[in-house]
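Lab notes, practical 5.
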Amino acid sequence: MTAPSFSPGPKAALVVVDVQQAFGDVEFWGTRNNPECEKNIETLIAHWRKTGRPVVFVRHDSTNESSPLHPSSPGNQFKDVITGEPDLLVVKSVNSSFHGTPDLHQWLQQEGVTELVVCGITTNHCCETTARVGGNLGYQVFFTLDATHTFDRQSPEGEVIPADTLGKITATNLHEEFATITTTEELITA
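Output from the prediction step:
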């Protein structure tokens, strides 16, 4: 992996997307990749707080009552690696963190934030969508691939696409178009 074109500045916001207990349910979601994801997210949160930069937590509140992400489900709660109070908590029911409450874009603008570091769950859904919308809105987005994970998915033709492959596809989709693809280590040593 190549180093980012530049390191995130002192006001870069860490956007931690949907790190919720429901995603630990293997029977519901299937096989996942990147077992180091949560450890890397925890490292990023600690580093961001140590450097005094803004931390945003995003929580998915599904409108489907049978979803493990529905607010009435214990799976809606954050995983244990999500600690302390964020500078902002965004609650959403769609893929993009920019389409929740309160308005993430408005808050970032008020805070003078122009750079985002995206991490969380899942790589190819809410994390990728957040990075795409952030890029479209003009933010410099750093996508921390090793601080995301996803699950195997079935294609329309019935083929099972492994989670690792889906992660590589997301990185390819975002690279040099919507985001700079990076790693946890690159960010904390930059």
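Observations recorded by the TA: Residues 37-50 form the longest helix (14 residues). DSSP finds six helices and nine strands in the chain.
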